[in-house]
Design goal:
It contains 25 helices and 13 strands. It is an alpha/beta fold and about 800 residues long. Strands 3-4-2-1-5-8-13-12-9-10-11 form an 11-stranded mixed sheet, with helices on both faces. Helix 10 packs antiparallel against helix 11. It starts with about 50 loop residues before the first helix and ends in a 7-residue tail after the last strand. The N terminus is likely disordered.
């Protein structure tokens, strides 16, 4: 037999040679069906490693997607679908079939899929570290620190005591099984920030109070738990060898490894950021360099006595998160890592589950008992301090479920222990099933208990109509761009702030969250500075500050910045409106025009955000369609603002009229109320709304008799087509038009208009004003606070 130092065998070995060579054929690439050699394997594509791996990947992702389409209706996360895919394809499911086992399912010698899943997991852990905001630790309040420290201290204390003393009191457990029980307790005691961050996104509570508390507590618990466990493992290594020097050596190796990664990556990332022009993505060469450092950090930590994934995780923490480096890394790598390689670890682990061959039922019972006790202790360690910190009971229960959830990180720990033969196949199968059950129950329980819209339950009459005429008017304006702030200021100028009825403006600038896992709400009044702030946001603040100085003593402005994912921005908007008790939220329209009236922006994300705000807002909402940019040579500039209200009837029209009446207090505003009356009044049979409308219109007619800048008009129309003609004529005259969003379906004034409605959230009249004109007339589509569903 050849030794390790022997040279490779020659192509033609001489007969009678004294050395024997052991040659193994690596069947990687299939020669195809047209190959000259007609060996049997040439026609079996899946006998070769590469076609088999590609076939496995195709089947995995197809089955996982089909399962997710089915299970998401039952509020189960994608993680469950990916894990079930592995179990179905493994020896528990179709892997038991002879045909499937030969053609598709991997055997013990096929390690390519395992290597690919580990590489994907390295980048998943690296990106998780990049998304972590270590500054959140210093910003976390006493509540998050209290819950996080207690949640780490109690489980780890019980685990260490039982591992060192308690386990020896159970002779039923063979001493060769002690290592497996200790590993289970050690892994169960840990908290995983990446898993929890993914969960709060899936549950759509990322920007809620529960989501923020979960992320802050998870970050504290994860880092503290990792430090405690690293110290325990090093001390344990020294005690097992009866040599203190081993503990010292392991500790020094770990510290040197961490220091080398941190003090290399930190200045390197700072240099990359310095060389990147403002507003530009990081150069591709630096992204390749960071990918190389992921492998190097993994190699370094693996040889320093730590687990192979700790190096990339520390590297991710050391990299400067957020734009430009962190955001570019996430933008370039997150799609393929989270969508392809990250789930591969879960499915690969599921394919190793074998529920059909379980023999040692007694030990399996101890495994389940250990997991249940650990979960129960962790749950109590979270919910008890949460209730003591005066967290609402429903939120405390949900918080405990979220922090105790398990996912791909715990799966990787179990898989590593299986490779190291700490767990046998039976134990690993039970642990994977426990992860599946915990993840399913957690997602379903929190989704059932926690409803963000319930935050505004009982929150009544927060609108302009029911606001006292001489009281403070509180408005929340939302801005994505500089043009949004300019449009909002023009609206505020005609809102007539004065001493007896001041105007309080809460301005929220929206910034997309990139390169981070934790959202951020910056209160600029508290001296907070947004890490991603730039000259653009400063200009936006300067515009409203100048407006505040112009009406000094009558206008008060406060500034906030929300850094969040676009699909969760409406949570911050509604939450701020609720906290500040605003009467109306002013939203920018999702379309923008240039000076020639040409459409230059049509954002689906802004439109989705507006729809979400309309559904969950704690007060009235106004969508501002700004067209002041458009030039009209036929209209002369004038200091007088001509404002109109289109009134058909209903709560939203009454709210729009109430806002316009406030504007009419300004002598520079000329208000025209145009009421559309059907030719046959009996066709409109909502008597209660008719009574309320009559009361509001009566007050308006009385006010018009005493004010020269108010005009009341009635237009009798037979159907929607006649209404459309009058509305189009109004666009030629007025600078600002206010209209209600919702009207009843049986209104004769709107017959036929709904069929042409392109933007449903604006209503038929608002849609007409938003789409069918290129004139410089701005529109505010008003929705009064909806208290029926609260």
């Amino acid at each position: 037999m050849a030794t390790h130092g022997a040279q490779p065998p020659p192509l033609l070995q001489n007969p009678g040679s004294t050395e024997d060579y052991c040659m193994g054929r690596m069947l990687v690439h299939s020669p195809g069906i047209w190959a000259v050699n007609t060996a049997t394997n040439h026609f079996r594509f899946f006998a070769y490693s590469l076609p088999r791996m590609l076939g496995q990947l195709a089947v995995m992702f197809l089955l996982a997607e089909l399962l997710h389409l089915l299970l998401k209706r039952f509020r189960l996360p994608r993680f469950v679908s990916e894990l079930l895919t592995g179990i179905i394809l493994g020896p528990t499911g179709v892997g038991r079939l002879e045909f499937t086992r030969k053609v598709l399912v991997m055997d013990q010698a096929d390690f390519y899929m395992g290597l690919l899943s580990k590489i994907g997991f390295l980048f998943f852990i690296f990106l998780s570290g990049v998304k972590m905001d270590l500054g959140l630790i210093s910003r976390s309040g006493v509540k998050a620190w209290t819950i996080g420290v207690i949640a780490v201290a109690i489980p780890h204390f019980i685990f260490i005591c039982f591992s060192e003393v308690g386990i020896t009191e159970y002779p039923q457990i063979h001493r060769y099984r002690w290592s497996a029980i200790r590993a289970i307790l050690r892994i169960q005691s840990q908290f995983s920030f990446p898993v929890i961050a993914l969960l709060v996104v899936d549950l759509k509570v990322m920007n809620s109070e529960l989501g923020r508390l979960s992320l802050a507590t998870a970050l504290v618990s994860d880092l503290l738990g990792t430090i405690v466990m690293a110290i325990y493992v090093n001390v344990k290594m020294g005690s097992m060898t009866a040599m203190t020097v081993v503990t010292v050596q392991a500790f020094v190796s770990g510290v040197v490894c961490v220091a080398l990664i941190v003090f290399t990556a930190r200045p390197l990332s700072a240099m990359i950021i310095k060389r990147t022009p403002e507003g530009r993505p990081v150069d591709k060469a630096y992204i390749i360099l960071m990918a190389f450092l992921v492998f190097f950090a993994s190699l370094l930590s693996d040889n320093a006595g730590m687990s192979f994934q700790y190096g990339p995780f520390i590297l991710g923490l050391a990299v400067h998160g957020g734009p430009p480096l962190g955001s570019t890394l996430v933008d370039k790598l997150d799609t393929i890592v989270s969508g392809l390689f990250g789930p591969l670890m879960v499915t690969f682990a599921g394919m190793k589950v074998n529920l059909c061959e379980i023999y040692d039922m007694e030990f399996i019972g101890y495994v389940w008992l250990a997991m249940l006790i650990c979960y129960f202790i962790k749950y109590l360690s979270v919910i008890t301090p949460a209730i003591a910190c005066k967290v609402p009971i429903t939120d405390a229960i949900s918080l405990a479920f979220i922090l105790c959830t398990q996912g791909v990180v715990q799966m990787s720990f179990y898989l590593n222990n299986t490779v190291n033969q700490t767990f046998d196949e039976e134990t690993f199968s039970m642990l994977v099933m426990a992860i599946l059950i915990i993840a399913s129950v957690t997602h379903f329980a929190v989704a059932s208990m926690y409803d963000y819209s319930r935050t505004y339950s009982g929150y009544q009459k927060r609108d302009i109509q029911h606001n006292s005429a001489n009281s403070e008017l509180r408005l929340l304006t939302v801005a994505h761009r500089l043009e949004d702030v300019l449009a909002a200021r023009k609206l505020f100028e005609v809102s007539c702030p004065y001493r007896e009825s001041p105007l309080s403006i809460y301005s929220m600038f929206l910034v997309e969250l990139v390169g981070r896992a934790t959202p951020l709400l910056v209160d600029h009044q508290l001296g907070q500075r947004n890490a991603s702030s730039n000259s653009r946001s400063q200009k936006m603040m300067d515009i409203l500050r100048s407006f505040e100085l112009q009406y000094l003593g009558y206008v008060y402005v406060q500034f906030f910045t929300s850094v969040s994912l676009p699909k969760f921005m409406h949570y911050d908007i509604c939450s701020l409106g609720f906290d500040k008790q605003t009467s109306m939220i002013i939203l920018p329209f999702h379309k923008k025009w240039n000076q020639q009236g040409k459409l230059i922006q049509d954002s689906n994300s802004i439109r989705t955000m507006n729809n979400n705000v309309l559904e969950t807002a704690p007060c009235s909402v106004g969508i501002l369609i700004d067209r002041h940019k458009i030039k009209n040579p036929q209209r002369m500039s004038s200091p007088v603002q001509h404002v109109a209200v289109i009134f058909l009837g209903g709560a939203d029209d009454r709210e729009a009229l109430s806002y316009a009446r406030r504007m009419s207090r300004s002598p520079s505003v000329y208000l025209t109320l145009v009421r559309f009356v059907p030719l046959d009044p009996d066709l409109y049979n909502d008597q209660w709304d008719a009574v309320l409308d009559a009361e509001v219109l009566k007050d308006m007619r009385i006010q018009a008799k005493h004010q020269d800048n108010i005009l009341y008009r009635e237009e009798r129309v037979n159907e929607g087509a006649e209404t459309a003609l009058v509305v189009r004529d109004m666009q030629e005259v007025f600078d600002l038009i206010l209209v209600g969003r919702r009207h009843t379906d049986d209104m004769p004034q709107l017959f036929g208009l709904s069929e042409w409605n392109e933007i449903a959230e604006l209503g038929p009249i608002g849609d007409m004003l938003a789409v069918d004109t290129t004139l410089p007339v701005s529109v505010v589509v008003v929705q009064q606070q909806d208290t029926k569903t609260k």
